[in-house]
Amino acid sequence: MKYIVAIIQPSRLEAVKEALSTIEVFRLTVTEAQGIGRQRGHTEVYRGHEYQINFVRKVKLEIAVDDKYVEPTIEAIVNAARTGAEGKIGDGKIFIMPLEDVVRIRTRERGSEAL
């Protein structure tokens, strides 16, 4: 099993959810996030004053999958989260980590059955 964490642009969330549902990955957790990456923020003007916005709004997806779903999940996220044909800085990142065990609290099932 693997634990996949993807940081994407908020505007791409619906497209990613649809792409994941086509490969039958329905269970995910979504969290609003802020971060600094290559974009290094941007400048905004409010009431005539210029402000540097360092943190950029993002969405964090957390998905636990069986090994056979790892590559399809990564492909679905990459294809749906990328802006344009070649993508742009700020499209996001995907982190894949080993998942040692899972326990479903209600039934006490463990491992793949608990996913």
Write structural notes for this entry.
This protein is α+β, with helices and mostly antiparallel strands and about 120 residues long. The chain has a single domain (about 1-115), classed as Alpha-Beta Plaits. It is about 20% helix and about 35% strand. The protein has helices spanning about 15-20, 70-80; strands at about 1-10, 30-35, 40-45, 50-55, 55-65, 90-100. Strands 2-5-1-6 form a four-stranded antiparallel beta sheet, with helices on one face. A hairpin with a 2-residue loop joins strand 3 (about 40-45) and strand 4. Helix 1 (about 15-20) runs antiparallel to helix 2. It is elongated.
Give a brief rundown of this model.
This protein has 115 residues and is α+β, with helices and mostly antiparallel strands. The protein contains 2 helices and 6 strands; from the N terminus they run E-H-E-E-E-E-H-E.
Secondary structure layout:
Layout: E1 2-8, H1 13-22, E2 29-35, E3 42-46, E4 49-53, E5 56-65, H2 70-81, E6 92-98
Antiparallel strand pairs: 1-5, 1-6, 2-5, 3-4
Helix pairs in contact: 1-2
